[in-house]
Fold each of these.
Amino acid sequence: MAAGIAVCAGVGAVTWALQSEPEPATTRVAWADVRLTAALPGRAEAAVHYRLYFGATLVSPPGAEQPSDDACALVTYDPNQARPGPVVSVTAEVGAAVTAGQELAKADTTAAVAELASAQQDLEQAQRRLDQDQALALQAASGPSPEARQDTQVAAGSAVGADQDRVTQINLRVTQARKTLADARITAPADGVIQAVDTALGSSPACRTPAFQLRSTALQVVADVPGSLLSRLAVGQHVVVALPQLDRSASTSVTSTPVKAVVSPQAVPSPYAAPGAQPAASKPVYPLAVTLDKPPAGMVPGMPAELTIVLAERRHVLAVPNSAVHHKADGDYVTLVSSVVKRCHDCSVRVSTGLVGDSLTEITDGVLLGDTIAVPGSAASTPTPTYPSSSASPPPSASPAPTEAPATPLPSPSLPPLPSAVPETTSRGADPQSP
């Protein structure tokens, strides 16, 4: 009896072990979109930075070494001409959103207005005098004798030349007075946000420090690309910018690839390192900037961001999970559980692969749409690959296949959905031929 109990206990243990063993997983070959992406941490920056003066504007790209704030070489006036007076209005403050052409500050123009009126009056008189002398010169050309005509023409020509010089000089006064009036106003060169205000009512316009600092409304995200990824970048690649702090994202594209390497400072040697040990040299990286002309609300410079760059993509191709493909010395293989045309069970089949994406591998030959293949792991541990639903029909050359499985929305919010079908993953215990 004791022996019988032991045998029964052993059989029960074996039965329990067999029942508790997880069943292998399977998946069907289906239409899907295969994507290979690269995720890079980045930071938001202003696309353009402006320093505004009375009479000058300095423009600097973000991340570039800022030159001196001294703009006096650009703000020049004739010492004999009027200059803008004290500041009489400041209409923008730090944090204000402004539009292109909006007036931000104005200086007193009383002297410039008077100078312009005086110059314009003098110009009218000089122009009248020039017209009169030119008429006299024409009359002198028809004098009674050649000698008289020559003497009169010399005198008339001398008067006309002096008149023309006078008109030119007064025209310069008019131009300078108009420039003074224009320089007395600071307007926004583009849509942006005021970052600093360094002028005040009653102060004199200065050229050594900017009156305003303005950043563009357009923002960009800068990320450091490792050298191993540089060759995969190309203009036009789709980029998704995720902002974890705002729980928002935006789409853009690569408009230019990095052209200059940046090496970060070397790390400080560990205090536990051997005496005289040198820190490991940092690897060069390549800054990549992508611009958002209309950034999400709340996005500001300095905010962390994540870039997801679509390096390569194949739409509506036959695909299987990456883990289902076995790489051997003579090629790639999958384990075929059942086929729509072949009589095969757990056969190792050689396949031709295309793009290997983040989670899926493109299959170009070796299996057919609807074939069931094994996936390492178990049905419980292997997640079902989900892709956006597809309204497109298979190519005419595709072999007949069971009805495609219902589609499930793409769970990741970082990439926009694209049309594809769902490779259905089931346990090995299910009927592989059931639709």
Amino acid sequence: MHEDQTLVFSTKEDEEERRHIRKVQNAFQYYRRYAYLRVNKTEDYLNSLAADDQRLLSKYRSHLDNVRNCIDCNQAVIREILRDRLLYPTGDNATDVSDASQLDEAPEHVRHGDMDQAQSTLKLIARDWSSECAVEREQSYKPIIDSIEEYYKPTDYKLNEIKILVPGAGLGRLTYELACRGYACEGNEFSYFMLIASNFVLNLCDYEDKHVLYPWVHQYVNNMRRADQVAPVRFPDVCPVKYPPKGNIEMAAGDFLEVYKTPNAYNCVATCFFIDCANNVIDFIRTIYKILVPGGIWVNLGPLLYHYSDISGQNSIEPTYEDLVIIMESIGFDIISTHTGISTKYAQNPLSMKQSKYKSLFWVCRKPPNNFDQQQQQKQQQQQEPPDLIVHQSNKDVNPDVHVDFETERQREREPKQT
């Protein structure tokens, strides 16, 4: 997003957007006080122990003071993030965030879930924009970028005419990387925690490693050393203001299903840790198919966590991978390549004793290049029962360095059809 670009809200949605942004701002403002509650609870228990136990934990007591200092530093970064008003609708009379004395006041309507999102946003800043998380980014983003560059080669296309959409763009690094390669890239994000933070990194950080953040300070378990919990990261490792991308980059706010309804609008949709964020994943797949141009591709990487599966009051379906293959082909996609077992982590402290990772799925699907092929394929599928599992030769556990032979696919398109 360039400095002269802002998010525009319709009149009908304006008040709802204001309330949502105010809720996010309140959670960010309350961060320090909320985080202190956890430290204070531990210290209160420490003070209740026998004198000999407290003496043995003297260095641990000092560590709790270091934790508070890290929380203070995080709040200072949050204050910088909130200082800019670019994303806020005009006329919002929320607290003046330049007044640091008001950041400890408990704002109204702050929920535990909001505070979890505020803390998670700090970890996601580290994931997308710190050198410490470069390996984690490469696991997730490199297969996607490589496949897009192989399909839409710079030698064959004017890249600024290739429109790529990244739903669930988060802190915007994948969107930025694709735009740096010359593509016209648009990120879409529903969470204003993410949008406000990504706007800060993309538009307001004017040199590399400008800010220091302590993203793991809330992880009290599985720490080998005291220093591991309070390990700093600097961001951004690359400065988008200093090194703007060659291609156009935009960030759009809103629900993916509500915002994107125009058929044949994008040459590529790139999803990373996104498709399992739907109550009904079929809605996502249908929408992706609809908005792709004929011949356009959908590149996906991620697990099947299904975020709404265990949330009270939410309905959810959780199709397996083999179900998704059936769904994608039944909707009309040509599955060019699929791979399983891609080792990926998500916002993990690299120093923690616990290292959770996914064996993620990766696939490249294509919307058929013309309507006739599409109609014929759908007609044939409607006449047949879907098989239990559609297996492709490329369905193997592979290294993330994925290569897809798109030239073979294009050669098949040029061959005369058998009648």
